[in-house]
């Protein structure tokens, strides 16, 4: 677990571990990071030394389950190369942390790590965000703008939700990946860039290729080295460490020293399926710390029971159930957890709404706590 003496929270709530530059490359990012100036020398020996090295390599990626180790091993292998990496995994599994680790372990670590969430940018602005524009290139382009590719020159560009890039932009993205050149909107001048691309998505890009909504050539260009970040339910053995990590993190922030977690609480947290993965767990623990008046964590685990998500009761999860479950969860995520209607998950899956609701009950699929309720789903959550 992270010791407060060795790390400090940065502006995004991640911890930045302190070490010598050789031990711990830290990215120079486009946004500010708070750093401590007082570096304490550490005594390194045997197990402690190995822990230190592992921490230095993977920053704040908590967990040592076999499933996570497989992913981290791939990170170590690909980081020193210049190859594109595709990070796959459900929402909240830590794809961005993995992307940062690849950058921090690469020869580009002294240069920028630039991030763009393609799903968060209105479609009309995405091209200008990626490639920049000249003044007057379109209505509202009152000044010249540098795009993310230029900002990431010599560094790493992390394109989150790459499956949300519209077809018409995919050709331009493929060109910059293959030729390392592009033009800003409204300019004829060709810019050369040297950027390593890391892409992430929770979508099924192979299925999108089949449906002609994602270019096949771009898919293969991006998929040079895929890394799948396992869902939290596939590495439940990491949950206690994560729970302690977030309890300490929020405890420090809220000036509370929580040093005990009841066994029943930890059992409930380990059994819950965490459809929103580590982000959902993190938000839940933040709430639990707020609710804890003393030194014992008081977590509202009845909420988890209310969502009916404890494992191990009626349904033994077979591999087939798991596959079906994952498929349904992906469709629900893609439709923002709306079940019925024209853009709902049932339509995407080619099922009747009532059949989907039935399958969701059977497979115990529930909306993550952090996502606001939609009337379409209320019937299932009770
Ligand atoms: N192994 C881990 N150890 C500690 N914190 C983690 C770990 N994995 C993820 N987190 C935390 O969980 C939150 C979600 O992680 P992150 O944003 O990397 O997920 P993501 O897969 O990129 O999500 P999305 O698909 O929604 O973009 C972050 O606050 C991150 O710090």
Automatic annotation (TrEMBL):
Alphabetical list of SUPFAM superfamilies matching this protein: Homeodomain-like, P-loop containing nucleoside triphosphate hydrolases
UniProt domain Sigma-54 factor interaction: residue ranges:
61-290
CDD domains noted in UniProt: AAA
Quote the biased-composition stretches of kind Basic and acidic residues, using this chain's numbering: 25-36
What domain of life does the UniProt record list for this protein's source? Bacteria
Q: Is Transport given among the entry's keywords?
A: no
Sorted alphabetically, the Gene Ontology BP terms of this entry are: regulation of DNA-templated transcription
Against Pfam families, the record matches this protein to:
AAA_lid_14 (PF25601), HTH_8 (PF02954), Sigma54_activat (PF00158)
Cite a single GO MF annotation. Answer: ATP binding
Question: Could you tell me what this protein is called?
Answer: Formate hydrogenlyase transcriptional activator
């Amino acid at each position: 677990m992270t010791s407060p003496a060795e790390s400090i929270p940065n502006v995004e709530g991640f911890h930045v571990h302190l070490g010598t530059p050789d031990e711990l490359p830290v990215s120079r990012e486009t946004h500010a990071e708070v750093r401590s100036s007082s570096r304490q020398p550490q005594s390194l020996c045997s197990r402690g030394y190995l822990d230190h090295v592992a921490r230095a390599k993977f920053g704040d990626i908590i967990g040592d389950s076999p499933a996570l180790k497989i992913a981290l091993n791939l990170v170590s292998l690909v980081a020193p190369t210049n190859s594109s990496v595709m990070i796959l995994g459900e929402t909240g599994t830590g794809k961005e942390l993995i992307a940062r680790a690849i950058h921090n372990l690469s020869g580009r670590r002294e240069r920028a790590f630039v991030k763009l969430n393609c799903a968060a940018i209105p479609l009309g602005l995405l091209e200008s965000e990626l490639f920049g524009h000249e003044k007057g290139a379109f209505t509202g382009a009152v000044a010249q703008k540098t795009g993310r590719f230029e900002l990431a020159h010599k560094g790493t560009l992390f394109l989150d939700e790459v499956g949300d890039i519209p077809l018409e932009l995919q050709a331009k993205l493929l060109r910059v990946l293959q030729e390392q050149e592009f033009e800003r909107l409204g300019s004829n001048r060709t810019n050369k860039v040297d950027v390593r691309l890391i892409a992430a998505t929770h979508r099924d890009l192979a299925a999108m290729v089949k449906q002609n909504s994602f270019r096949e050539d771009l898919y293969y260009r991006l998929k040079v080295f895929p890394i799948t970040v396992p869902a939290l339910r596939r590495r439940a053995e990491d949950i206690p460490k994560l729970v302690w990590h977030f309890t300490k993190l929020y405890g420090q922030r809220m000036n509370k020293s929580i040093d005990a977690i009841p066994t029943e609480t930890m059992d409930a947290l380990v059994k819950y399926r965490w459809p929103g993965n580590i982000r959902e767990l993190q938000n839940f623990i933040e709430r639990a710390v707020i609710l804890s008046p003393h030194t014992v964590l008081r977590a509202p685990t009845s909420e988890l029971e209310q969502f009916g998500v404890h494992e191990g009761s009626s349904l033994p999860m077979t591999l087939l159930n798991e596959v079906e479950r994952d498929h349904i969860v992906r469709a629900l995520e893609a439709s923002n957890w709306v079940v019925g209607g024209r853009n709902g998950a049932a339509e995407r899956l080619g099922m009747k709404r009532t059949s989907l609701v039935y399958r969701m009950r059977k497979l115990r699929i529930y909306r993550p706590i952090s996502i606001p309720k939609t009337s379409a789903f209320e019937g299932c959550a009770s």
